[in-house]
Amino acid sequence: QEVQYKNFPMVPRVVFGKGSFDALGSILMSKRKHSDAPFIFLVDDVFEGKELVGRIPAIFNDLIIFISADEEPKTEQVDVLVQKVKDDSMEPPSGIVGIGGGTVMDLAKAVAIMLNNEGSSSVYQGWDLVKKPSIYHVGIPTISGTGAEVSRTTVLLGPEKKLGINSDYTTFDQVVLDPDLTYGVSKNQWFYTGMDCFIHCVESLNGTYLNAFSQSYGEKAFELCKEVFLDDLSPCESRDKLMMASWHGGMSIAYSQVGVAHALSYGLSYLLGVKHGLGNCLVFQHLEEFYPEGVAMFNTIREKHEIRLPEGICANLSDGEFNTMITVALSMEPLWENALGKQWRTSITPAKLKSIYQKI
Ligand code: NAD
Ligand code: ZN
């Protein structure tokens, strides 16, 4: 039997450090095709009117477009943005820069792909369906945890499914890691997105797909998460370390897979629009059967930081609605196989999943 070796693309360039955002101007200068080929900055609208916007190195015909992260990215939204960029710039852009959390970074990746590929972005949801390289794109995270800054996917809600555009062209060409940009994230959101990273580590390290490559990143990310969430670091050290935990957590799942929490969280998100970080937390707290040590640590962290998770989310759902979530969750086959092995179908039944959703 032929072994399938993944030939995994990595981010080829990265800067790290407090204040490194200010290196962006010179980084982009060398990538400007000419003065009529603008850079398009997609920026989380939480920064509208804030000091950071004044530091964006927009010159010539560059465009700054503010994006709301209230809802997760949609294929339709990507298509509208691509059309807007085409209409508003005289020449094909020099590149796209995404400044924000997983939501804005995923949009930036998708827009960069779609500026060079035909049709609707929904056509490319899946694995390796993108035909032509994307335009130059830069990711600048302003909240830490998703690993979207290193991954080769951009997760989009499409007309039929919530699924990533997984391709070698998705990965950013450049990332700027400036931990100071995460200053100002609310405590709840810090916890939700940070726990996304923690859960990436637990699911990767306890999965059947684990290998030395994933383990080396997963263990480092897990160690950093423990320091950030259980020790008493200075705020500055904590921001630095969580940013690197996110990076390593993302690298860890790149060469393996996520697991039970992500599969169930996708169902919640598809039906109810529950956002990724919160959805993972809502599910993960009830997974002691699958991840006993991880869930115990999660609860310790939650109590230490006095986070109260919403309750009764699934209280009034119909059987049809439960079934929709269950179908979405069960369709994530590689996640189940990673979590439980090839025989996963013997223990994971619709009734089992319903009993977990009913607790949320
Ligand atoms: P997010 O981007 O949705 O942002 C969450 C909230 O934090 C928003 O209200 C946003 O405005 C706010 N925010 C961001 N930075 C801030 C700052 N510096 N100060 C104050 N507020 C700030 O959150 P997220 O958890 O980073 O991203 C979730 C998204 O990432 C989901 O759409 C999910 O599907 C996606 N995701 C993608 C990958 C991938 O590999 N591509 C992996 C995991 C998750
Ligand atoms: Zn995740």
In short:
This protein has helices at 24-29, 51-54, 75-88, 102-114, 187-205, 212-230, 235-254, 260-272, 276-284, 292-304, 319-330, 333-340, 350-357, and strands at 14-16, 39-44, 63-67, 95-100, 126-127, 137-141, 155-157, 162-166, 174-177. It is of the alpha/beta class and 360 residues long. Strand 7 (155-157) and strand 8 (162-166) form a beta hairpin.
CATH superfamily of the largest domain: Dehydroquinate synthase-like - alpha domain
Major beta sheet summary: 6 strands, parallel
**Uncertain stretches of 5 or more adjacent residues:** none
- What percentage of the residues does DSSP assign to strands (E)? 5-15%
CATH topology of the largest domain: Dehydroquinate synthase-like, alpha domain
Which of globular, elongated, flat, extended, rod-shaped describes the shape?
Answer: globular
Query: Would you list the SSEs in sequence order as H and E?
Result: EHEHEHEHEEEEEHHHHHHHHH
> Helix proportion of residues, in percent?
40-55%
- Number of discrete helical segments: 13
Bound molecules: nicotinamide-adenine-dinucleotide, zinc ion
Task: Determine the mean pLDDT.
Answer: 96
N- and C-termini, Cα separation = 43 Å
| CATH secondary-structure class of the largest domain | Mainly Alpha
From the coordinates shown, what is the CATH architecture of the largest domain? Up-down Bundle
Instruction: State the strand order across the main sheet.
Output: 1-9-6-4-2-3
Rg from alpha-carbon coordinates: 20 Å
Task: Report the count of strand segments.
Answer: 9
Structural class: alpha/beta
Task: Compute the number of structural domains.
Answer: 2
